[in-house]
Write a structure and sequence with these properties.
This protein is an alpha+beta fold. The protein is 17% helix and 41% strand. InterPro entries: Transcobalamin-like_C.
């Protein structure tokens, strides 16, 4: 009888594990800190079912600390790396460039989703824009700035950084850096730095 119970328990645990992995999606995750990239400047592909799980996997792969506290609206990420949330500043996330209207543990990810965790200071108009960089031809790149809703907003004083050089990005968002060997990143006043692109 005990043996049957153990076998049944093991089979149930296996079924739950398989079901959980079947629900996981293949996504990319990146974590941008207050002063530097913490994980995945080139977004890293992982299997995760929600944004909280994506952060947990990233913390294991990148060997960084994060802290979660219970709040009235569910689990809240109160710290990633060195900097804790305080006042109007804290840790937030976007999926595919937009801030979801639910907590990180409630977001159901789909294959191909991109999760970005970042440190932000919020004002009257919400959080800072997040920058997204894409290759746009040989040595050229297209830069977009996205608000909390994932809508494009005007770029302010943006530049591409590569191989120790800075190239100003015009208002249209496209700039060419010419030949280079390093990764290209975008920075703009009051915005969260971009992903890196080869």
């Amino acid at each position: 009888m005990v043996r049957r119970l153990l076998v049944l328990t093991a089979l149930t645990a296996l079924a739950l594990a398989l079901a959980a992995s079947a629900l996981a999606a293949t996504i990319t995750v990146r974590v941008e800190g207050k002063t530097r990239s913490i994980f995945g400047s080139l977004p890293v592909t992982v299997e995760a079912s929600n944004a909280m799980q994506a952060l947990d996997i990233a913390s294991t792969l990148g060997e960084f600390h994060y802290q979660v506290v219970d709040s009235s609206f569910g689990p809240y990420v109160s710290q990633i790396g060195k900097y804790p949330a305080a006042g109007a500043s804290g840790w937030v996330f976007k999926v595919n460039g937009a801030s979801p209207p639910v907590g990180a543990d409630k977001v159901e990810l789909k294959d191909g989703d991109a999760v970005l965790w970042y440190f932000a200071t919020f004002g009257d108009l919400g959080g800072p824009a997040t920058l997204e960089l894409k290759a746009a031809g040989a040595g050229c790149y297209a830069l977009s700035a996205l608000d909390d809703a994932g809508k494009k907003v005007a770029l302010r004083s943006a530049s591409l950084h590569v191989d120790g050089r800075r190239v100003k990005v015009p208002a249209g968002g496209k700039a060419c850096v010419g030949r280079h060997t390093g990764l290209v990143r975008a920075f703009a006043v009051g915005a969260v730095r971009s992903n890196a692109v080869r």
